[in-house]
Amino acid sequence: xxxxxxxxxxxxxxxxxxxxxxxxxxxxxxxxxxxxxxxxxxxxxxxxxxxxxxxxxxxxxxxxxxxxxxxxxxxxxxxxxxxxxxxxxxxxxxxxxxxxxxxxxxxxxxxxxxxxxxxxxxxxxxxxxxxxxxxxxxxxxxxxxxxxxxxxxxxxxxxxxxxxxxxxxxxxxxxxxxxxxxxxxxxxxxxxxxxxxxxxxxxxxxxxxxxxxxxxxxxxxxxxxxxxxxxxxxxxxxxxxxxxxxxxxxxxxxxxxxxxxxxxxxxxxxxxxxxxxxxxxxxxxxxxxxxxxxxxxx
Length: 298
Known about the structure:
- By secondary structure, the chain is an alpha/beta fold.
- Helices cover about 40% and strands about 15% of the residues.
- The strands form two sheets. A five-stranded parallel β-sheet has the order 7-6-5-8-9. Strands 2-1-3-4 form a four-stranded parallel β-sheet, sandwiched between helices.
- It is globular.
């Protein structure tokens, strides 16, 4: 694995390896070695962040490296320099890059032009680091995702749901996505996915019935906050006590945060499952360290 750009580009063996590595690194924290010693990694963020920035900065330091944070306003990307030019400059100066931005193609172009390991820390298309953290949390809480039903309630074609659908295809667990009809993945995407174990519905109750994992995210992704009309379409898709009442007896609730309480998830459900949700947030650190260690081998 030369870069970490999407779940789509991985396979089941690679996903399982990264999660097992993350679990090992979590147990060995403080004793995991320093494969990034002497290395500088650029964190290029054109989208704001709490968990992503902190977890990558801490992870790079714990592995012996030096993180260099660069917001969109700090570098010439903010003034219109092409991503390929920024990539060719940084590729001669730093040892790796972590990019959180809008267009997936920007991350792909940076990886192709820089010749240094590149990590997708979130784009509009995928949020692959978060999915690894979520899968690690499922493994810790439920033992495995094999044979489990995962329900995602919310935007059916967000970066989170796209990454979840690719993970389900490769790992084989059942995934049911419940979202308003206007927010569901287009038929072309589902044909490309070609996964019989992934289904989409407008009925959140059907999706969560018997579910072992109930997952949600903000209704309006970053950059969509002003679209109040779209938000109204999500009425009835809140993860609340009534919705999760028909879940499997032993179930967990996930939210990648930040959460808008009493919108996509009720205050009551978030607090009932806060231990899992904030364990999920912590696992970003360990999952991303696993990615960094794997790329450091190359």
